[in-house]
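The following block was generated as part of the benchmark described in Methods. Ligand: 1,3-dihydroxyacetonephosphate.
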Amino acid sequence: MRRPVIAGNWKMHKTVQESINAAIGLKRKFYTFAEADIVICPPFTSLSKVSDQIMDSSIMLGAQDLYWEEEGAFTGEISPNMLKDAGCRYVIVGHSERRNIFGETDDDVNKKLKVALRHGMVPIMCIGERLEERDSGMTLEILEKQLARGLRDVAKDEAVRIVIAYEPIWAIGTGRTATPQQAQEAHRFIREFIERSYDREAFSKIRIQYGGSVKPENIAQLMAQEDIDGALVGGASLDVNSFAEIVKNAVL
Ligand code: 13P
């Protein structure tokens, strides 16, 4: 009932030519693909060229971040209009690397989320706990705080368009995936938060992805969980074949 969404976050990888090559490779495999939304999120410099490549295919373009102002003196930032102009339909907000390395707050995430929605893009809102938070039993409390602050003043009709990505920080780039049970527990909690904040319809509609060391070998088990609707893939999305395997195994 919920359409799976598999997104590749290329992070700070690939030149323009490397991005084009990867896009061509993926387009060959997924020119038409009905079973899931496939999204690739290249670095800003590659967006427009990748868009040219995938335009007429089933693959969609996403950005890795945005700023909440429309334009102005904000050196180094990128606006929602610029992303749309480059062909983006999705945009990642609040990735843990943005939060931890660049100091983004839940308030910033909330502003980014709202501006993305206002411009008709689908925000992929990332949340997740650190290892020490999990070890001290604070996971759900952390998720609740990130959700409550990140979704502040977002109406239900907009909230149901958001994709939430549960990315436990200890699983990102470490090879240590959350077990399907750990991921399912967090996803269920997130879905129930959405029900408490909105209603049962929002509970059923909202799509929740898992992210953190997703690979062709573990995606099927994750997707078999009731509340896991897709994946946000980092390292394994950089290689066309491994990302293609993930997409295929996700919808088996
Ligand atoms: P890895 O798949 O490399 O663990 O990265 C996950 C991630 O951060 C995706 O946004």
